[in-house]
Amino acid sequence: MTDRSARRIRLSGHVQGVGYRPFVYRLACELGVAGWVKNATGTVAIHAEGTTAALAAFVPALVERAPAIARPSLVLDEACDDEGHAGFAILASDGAGEPDIHVPPDYFTCDDCLSELGDPADRRHGYPFINCTQCGPRYTLITALPYDRPNTSMAGFPLCPACGREYGDPTDRRFHAEPVACPVCGPHLEFVAGQDAVTGDAAALAAAVAALRDGGIVAVKGIGGYHLMCDATSDAAVAELRRRKPRPRKPLAVMFPADRRILAATVRLTPEAATLLESPARPIVLLEIADTTKLSRHIAPGLAEVGCFLPYSPLLYLLLERFGGPLVATSGNISGEPVLTDNGEAQTRLAHIADAFLHHDRPIVRPADDPVFRPIAGKPRPIRLGRGVAPLELELAEPVAEPVLALGSHMKNAICLAWGRRAVLSPHIGELGAPRSLETLAQVAADLQRLYRVRAERLLLDRHPGYGYRRWARETGLATTEIWHHRAHASALAWEFPDVSEWIVFAWDGVGLGEDTTLWGGETFLGAPGRWRRAASLRSFRLPGGDKAGREPWRSAAALLWETGQPAGFAPDLLRQAWQRDLNSPTSSAAGRLFDAAAALIGVCSEASFEGEGPMKLEALASAHVDPAITPPSLPASKDSAGIWRIDWSPLLAMLTDASSSQAARALCFHQAMAAALVDQAVQLREETGAGDVGLTGGVFQNRLLTELAQAGLAAAGFRIRLAERIPVNDGGVSFGQIIEYLTSPT
Fold first, then answer.
1. Structurally, how many domains does the chain consist of?
2. pLDDT, tens digit, for every residue of 516-550?
3. Vertex 201 angle, CA 224 and 139, to 5°
4. For strand 693-697 and strand 503-513, is the pairing parallel, antiparallel, or unpaired?
5. Which of the 8 DSSP states describes residue 549?
6. Which of 5, 6, 372, 705 is most open to solvent, judged by the fewest CB atoms within 10 Å of its CB?
7. Is 123 in the same domain as 46?
8. pTM score, two decimals?
9. Are residues 406 and 278 in the same domain?
10. CA-based Rg of the chain, rounded to a whole angstrom?
């Protein structure tokens, strides 16, 4: 009798496209385990035979010793018949069976590949598309699963003999690295300027670097789309990029060479920020600009922070290394639209912006913009999900009754697919005001369903009747359920903290349709997902011109003055007359519009060239001011006829319009007053309900100063403060919140 047995094993999670099968092969050989491993439909199946001791070591090591970018979950481990295998093999993928799909995001270039990239003796030296099982594109090149080369955009690049040997060798780190290629058989660069084209990777790259050094603007095709790039230290180049795009004042992201010294001379680089910048997602991180910076003054006018990120693809490593300094790397798109991915379309639609193009011939299957994080209250908070982070796979506390697709919001759109106990949040899509944005939404919706092999049976929509996706939703013919905007905000946050049963949630943002048909945005809820009760809000006011107020903060300023019987000499008389007659002047309680008004009254921003410009400049001004003698006005609260507590903002007006105080002092005073009013409101609601957990959500809480002031005040008052860490608090998280609301609603 021999001490030999066999086990049938299955692992789910991120186990495809991460080098998991070769890892299993090497582990089995190391431990003397026979059998086989293969990709199934989204999972990895293993038949393992060996001694009791060998199998006892093998099974836990499948999780404990997995590759760094793998996320395996053991879903099956049971005894089975011994098939008498003499060795261990990797079998062909099996596409049959119940799908359990996990789509990997795009990964940054690993250290091993970077070492080869810089090694003159290596056959991939300087090759802009080097990768292995531990790195390289995934989500943006997968056409279907199982994740095999024929199911990617690399299908059109047959492997040369040398790459074929690596691809087929289980001991090689490029074994079944689906994007694997080399200069002989893989994608290549092309530099185009006007009618002139430069081919050959080294020559094309050199031409792009030369154009950038000459002050030119170059559209560079990356992993998930194009970047528009120029010298970040050149006032002339950055100003010209702004003029052409046009993007007059919205901050521009800057990519730095992988050299901490350059970063440290440009921004205030804490160890935590450095860790975030170098994390696998390689996100854009908002960091404070240092006094020693050499960045152009046009990068982030009026702001104290700049979005910084590091190269994450071999092409970008080469480009930044050879340029030798920071480059503006903003999305290659028409402002407000998703990033462009197709060579021909990019060259046509960006011709008025870019002086030249650095193309490559590896197709991008779907767009993925760069993710953005901001350190707030000691932790990185997601502002935008994208390449390297999304699709973000999330687990639900209980299964949805049917597969649903949530369409999110009109601004900062991202969509979410849910089935069973799983939900997948898409990368950032953008604003839905342009036809191409709606086309991209439809593409991403179809892609998610095809990749995960799930067909949605219901759509979840925001209650606002004017959102851009309404027509597309009707054309699908699917059943729909409408979800209130601010309840979705609150529920997205609540999902992150399942230990909390009774909440006080402040949902402050720009505007969203409220349950009384006014424009909400300064709301406070009690309860939990599926049973939120609006308990408090801001004093409401009427917005002259409606939606125009979002880009014209002076309108919100005028509204506050008129609401309190004061003149607004900067506003046209005809507009006041329309406001008095309630013409196109919807009622709002939005905190975002209150911040707009403060920015305009202080003189920081009366006309916004991008959403949130006024509040961002207001925060930057306030953050730079330190004055312990400042005493903010107290904002009283009282209940209205419906029993809703209303915070009265009117005591702010005298301070905001007092020109004897500096703009910075008034900006700080405003933030302090709003934070104090929030704390006072929480205390009042705790007295009524006993709830001690406070959540802050909505786009207003992307404001670090406000959030940290509120956090400090709440902590001093004995509250437990909950801030999102995985889901954006802005409208990028609304679709996931819609899923949670749908799942928990009683009807």
1. 5
2. 999 999 999 999 999 999 999 999 999 999 999 99
3. 20
4. parallel
5. G
6. 5
7. no
8. 0.93
9. no
10. 27
